[in-house]
Amino acid sequence: MSTGGPRVWALLSYRAGESSQILGLAEALRELSGIDFEEKRIHPRPWRFAISLARLPSSCGVDRRRSSPIAEPWPDLLISAGAKNEPVARWIKARSGGRTKLVFLGRTWCPPETFDLVVTTPQYRLPEHPRILHNPVTITRIGPERLAEARRSWTDRLGVLPEPRLAVLVGGRSGGWCFGRHAARRLAADLETERARLGGSIMVTTSSRTDPAAAELLDRLIAEPKVVHLWHRDRREDNPYFGFLALAEEIVVTGDSIAMLSEALATGLPVRAFDLGTGKLAMRRRGAATGPCDQTVATRAYRLMCALGPRRLGRDLRLAHDRMLETRQLKWLGDEDYPETCIAIDARRDTALRVLALLHGVEG
């Protein structure tokens, strides 16, 4: 920490994507102002989500023995995300006597006035409010320095692949959509069409949410030359994800992951989104594919909840897709026209400037 500077805690989430956004904002603050930060990792107790639903500021959902120390001196700024983190984040603010500035990413259960700043994206459908910052993309950790570092680290291993290289980032189940065998077959066919247009090679990485059977099928269906990294919990340190982003000429991302789409757009490369759905269950508004669509008990239950339950329980990924499509750097995979611009789209700097203003007592 900077001597005498503000104390900043990055209270990491139970979801990897949210933790990446938290760290991305904390790192942007450090780059702009030299303010360092401390990572806090907490482990939940089984009843933690019930406390979130009750909207109570509390730390009793945290397993203190397995978590980072959460004690005085309290931070000047706390950055966090995720419904299960909301109670302890609010508890920290209360314990500080309200002095801690609380910045929350994504969607919150409590009213905006509970927080000093909420940073959100379109899929959460939050209202316009002085304490809500609406960004078209999520905050990422992608920037020129990280891409340059990844290029140095991965050129020896990936540089042998024929150019141009097409990076493919594969997610999994999200809300009412999932990446299963049907989607794997369609994606493989679409990628071969792209290879016919581009030439070169294909680089694929799956994620923690990817169904292993669908990932293995995709691997079998994509022809050489290729590199396919199948995500495994014990192989996270050898994940070529950033290397793919650094060494690709174009990127394809499955539409279930707004975070991965945001990271792809932050590179400044042309990006194409793959629609996990078909027909009436498609993500895209027009030109949807036909044929069978992957559905599970979880995706059907989510669609039923969105249809019958309170609107705030669900999220509409298509709203985020629409905002990204407006940039004309993102297109749907299979469209006849192609991305037109190559300007990196990054929410980090503007968000960090807003947070710095908050630290200096300027709101709104």
Question: Helix and strand layout, with pairings?
Answer:
Blueprint: E1 8-11, H1 16-33, E2 38-40, H2 48-54, E3 77-81, H3 86-95, E4 101-105, E5 117-120, E6 132-134, H4 144-158, E7 165-169, H5 181-198, E8 201-205, H6 212-221, E9 226-229, H7 241-247, E10 250-254, H8 258-265, E11 271-274, H9 297-308, H10 317-325, E12 330-332, H11 348-359
Parallel strand pairs: 1-2, 1-3, 3-4, 4-5, 5-6, 7-8, 7-10, 8-9, 10-11, 11-12
Helix pairs in contact: 1-11, 4-7, 5-6
Structural account:
With 364 residues, the chain is of the alpha/beta class. The protein folds into 2 domains: 8-139 and 348-359, 3-Layer(aba) Sandwich (Rossmann fold), CATH 3.40.50; 144-332, Rossmann fold, CATH 3.40.50. 35% of the residues lie in helices and 14% in strands. The strands form 2 sheets. A 6-stranded parallel beta sheet has the order 2-1-3-4-5-6, with helices on both faces. Strands 9-8-7-10-11-12 form a 6-stranded parallel beta sheet, sandwiched between helices. Helix 1 crosses helix 11 (348-359) and helix 5 packs parallel to helix 6. The two termini are 27 Å apart.
- How many discrete structural domains? 2
The backbone outline, from C-alpha atoms, is: globular
Work out the number of β strands.
12
The major beta sheet can be summarized as: 6 strands, parallel
Major beta sheet, strand line-up: 2-1-3-4-5-6
CATH level-3 fold name of the largest domain? Rossmann fold
**Secondary-structure element order, N to C:** EHEHEHEEEHEHEHEHEHEHHEH
**Proportion of residues in extended strands:** 5-15%
The CATH architecture category of the largest domain equals 3-Layer(aba) Sandwich
Report the end-to-end length measured between terminal Cα atoms.
Answer: 27 Å
Proportion in helices: 25-40%
Q: Supply the CATH class of the largest domain.
A: Alpha Beta
Mean pLDDT level: 91
- Residue windows where pLDDT falls under 50 for at least 5 positions: none
Count of helical stretches: 11
Supply Rg. 21 Å
Structural class: alpha/beta
